[in-house]
Design brief:
With 463 residues, this protein is of the alpha/beta class. The chain folds into two domains: 1-164 and 213-271, Aconitase, domain 3; 288-462, 2-Layer Sandwich (Aconitase, domain 3). Helix content is 31%, strand content 17%. Strands 5-4-3-6-7 form a five-stranded parallel sheet. Strands 17-16-15-18-19 form a five-stranded parallel sheet, covered by helices on one side. Helix 2 packs across helix 5 (147-156), helix 6 runs parallel beside helix 8 (214-222) and helix 12 packs parallel to helix 15 (445-454). The longest helix has 16 residues, at 78-93. It starts with 5 loop residues before the first helix and ends in a 9-residue tail after the last helix.
Length: 463
C-alpha cells in the first residue's frame, strides 16, 4: 500500500478532475485578494460578463499600498490611492465585503487570515501574492498565483495545476538562546540557496518545528518561497487546533468537533517517500543576517562575509557586495545602521511585537536610528495597545504605526533612503526592494530591536 504524504492527502482531496497528460483541476477553498493583483482580474470578469463564482470563499483587504500614518485621511500618493480606490469600487460592483482602511479586520492578507480563523487545516489557499505560503503553518496547501490565475479562481474557484515535487526538511533539537524562527528559516535558505526548493512543496518536520508557536511557524512557512519552492507547510497538531479554536470565523461547537476529527488525519504517514530530504540540527543555528541582495546570502552573526558565493557566479556576488557597500571577509558586527523596520507578513504578529517590546523595555534607541514598528493588522495593533506595548515602544523611541505592508516593499510612503542601511524583519533584500538604492539586512525581530538600541549590528546573545 502506497504511503501518503500530507501533501498527497490534501491535494488528492481537492482534485476536481484530471486532464490526461496534462494538469489537474484543483479546487480552491479560500481566495485572498488585495489592491495590487486584483484589478486586472476584475476587469477580465467584467469583459466576459462573469460574476464571482463563489463570493463567500473570497476575502478582500487593502495592505500593500496603504499608508501607515493617518489612515483616516485620503491617501496622498496618487498611484496608491488609485489602486485602493479601484479595489473599493470592484468589491462594491461584485458585492464583496472588503476589510478596507478603517475596518477592524483590515491588515496584511497573510496576517488576517490566520487571526480571524479563516485559515484552517487541510485547505487549499491562494492569493496574488508570493508569500501566501504563510498559511501553510496550519497544514494548508497555500501558494501565490499570478493575475491571470486570480481571474481563473474568481471565475471558477479552481486552478489548472501540475502537482509539484515534494521535499521534507527535518530540524531537530532546541533552538539556542536568542535564536528565533526567523533565524531558523534564514539559516535553511543560506544552506540550500535561493533555488534549493525549485519545483517543490516543502514539509517542515522534526522536534524543533513541533516546539514552535503558530506565529513562529508562520514565519518559517512565509519564507519557503525564498528558496524557490512553491510553498511550505507544517502538519497540524495540538498547537494548531488550540490556536484556531474560538477565532471569529473558525467552526464552533459540534462543527468544530467534526472539523477536528478531520484535521487529526492530516499528517504524513510513516515510510511515505519524498523526492528530496534534508536534515538540520537546531543547535547549529545562530542569529542570522543577510549581507547581499537575495535571502540566500545569509551568515551567522559570528561569521564573516564569505569570499565567494556557493550559488551565484563571482560577477553577481561582487555586484551584490558593491550594492551593499560591503567587503568579502568583513564582519557585520559593529556595522552602523540608520533604519530598523519591524513588520511585514513575516514578522508583524503580536508575538513579534512582544519580543521587541520585551527587549527595548527600559532601553533607548540610538539617536541616529529611525525605528518603525508596523503591526500586521488592526487586531494586532489593538492587542499591542491593550497590553501597553505601544507605551513601552514609545518610551524607547520606537514608532508604532498603523497596519500595512509598509517598508517591506516600497510601494507606499514608507521607503528607506538611497545608500542607507535598514535592518528589516521582512522577507526580501533585493536591490531597491525598500526604496531605490536602499540597503536591506534581513534579521529576526530580536536582532533588529538590538540593532536599533545599539545603533549598529550586534550579537543579541551578548547583550
Amino acid at each position: 500500500m502506497h504511503k501518503k504524504t500530507l501533501f498527497d492527502k490534501i491535494w488528492n482531496q481537492h482534485v476536481v478532475s484530471k486532464i490526461e497528460d496534462g494538469p489537474d483541476v484543483l479546487y480552491i477553498d479560500r481566495h485572498f485578494i488585495h489592491e495590487v493583483t486584483s484589478p486586472q482580474a476584475f476587469d477580465g470578469l467584467k469583459k466576459r460578463g462573469l460574476s464571482l463564482f463563489r463570493k463567500e470563499k473570497t476575502i478582500a483587504t487593502a495592505d500593500h499600498n496603504v499608508p501607515t500614518l493617518n489612515q483616516h485621511l485620503p491617501i496622498k500618493e496618487a498611484q496608491s490611492r488609485f489602486q485602493v480606490d479601484t479595489l473599493i469600487k470592484n468589491c462594491k460592483d461584485f458585492g464583496l465585503e472588503l476589510y478596507g482602511l478603517g475596518h477592524p479586520y483590515q491588515g496584511i492578507v497573510h496576517v488576517i487570515g490566520p487571526e480571524l480563523g479563516v485559515t484552517q487545516p487541510g485547505m487549499t489557499i491562494v492569493c496574488g501574492d508570493s508569500h501566501t505560503s504563510t498559511h501553510g503553518a496550519f497544514g494548508c496547501i497555500a501558494f501565490g498565483i499570478g493575475t491571470s490565475q486570480v481571474e481563473q479562481v474568481m471565475a471558477s474557484q479552481s486552478l489548472l495545476l501540475n502537482k509539484p515535487k515534494q521535499m521534507r526538511i527535518t530540524i531537530d533539537g532546541n533552538l539556542p538562546k536568542g535564536v528565533l524562527s526567523k533565524d531558523l528559516i534564514l539559516y535553511v535558505i543560506s544552506k540550500l540557496g535561493t533555488g534549493g526548493g525549485t519545483g517543490h512543496f516543502i514539509e517542515y518536520a522534526g522536534s524543533t518545528i513541533r516546539n514552535l508557536s503558530m506565529e513562529a511557524r508562520m514565519t518559517v512557512c512565509n519564507m519557503s518561497i525564498e528558496m524557490g519552492a512553491r510553498g511550505g507547510f507544517i502538519a497540524p497538531d495540538q498547537t494548531t487546533f488550540e490556536y484556531v479554536k474560538g477565532r471569529t470565523f473558525a467552526p464552533k461547537g459540534e462543527s468544530f468537533d467534526t472539523a477536528l476529527e478531520y484535521w487529526k488525519t492530516l499528517y504524513t504517514e510513516d515510510a511515505a517517500e519524498f523526492d528530496t530530504e534534508y536534515h538540520f540540527d537546531a543547535a547549529d543555528i545562530e542569529p542570522m543576517l543577510t549581507y547581499g541582495t537575495n535571502p540566500g546570502m545569509g551568515i551567522k552573526v559570528s561569521n564573516n562575509i564569505p569570499s565567494s558565493s556557493h550559488e551565484s557566479n563571482d560577477a553577481s556576488f561582487t555586484k551584490a557586495l558593491n550594492y551593499m557597500d560591503l567587503q568579502k571577509g568583513e564582519s557585520l558586527i559593529g556595522k552602523k545602521i540608520n533604519h530598523v523596520f519591524i513588520g511585514s507578513c513575516t514578522n508583524a504578529r503580536i508575538e513579534d511585537l512582544r519580543i521587541v517590546a520585551n527587549y527595548v523595555n527600559g532601553k533607548q534607541k540610538a539617536d541616529h536610528v529611525l525605528a518603525m514598528v508596523v503591526p500586521g493588522s488592526k487586531i494586532v495593533e489593538a492587542q499591542a495597545k491593550a497590553e501597553g506595548l505601544d507605551k513601552v515602544l514609545a518610551a524607547a523611541g520606537f514608532e508604532l504605526r498603523e497596519p500595512g505592508c509598509s517598508a517591506c516593499l516600497g510601494m507606499n510612503e514608507d521607503k528607506v533612503p538611497a545608500g542607507e542601511y535598514c535592518v528589516s524583519t521582512s522577507n526580501r533584500n533585493f536591490e531597491g526592494r525598500q526604496g531605490p538604492g536602499a540597503r536591506t539586512i534581513l534579521a529576526s525581530p530580536l536582532t533588529a530591536a538590538a540593532a536599533a538600541v545599539a545603533g549598529e549590528i550586534v550579537d543579541v546573545r551578548k547583550m
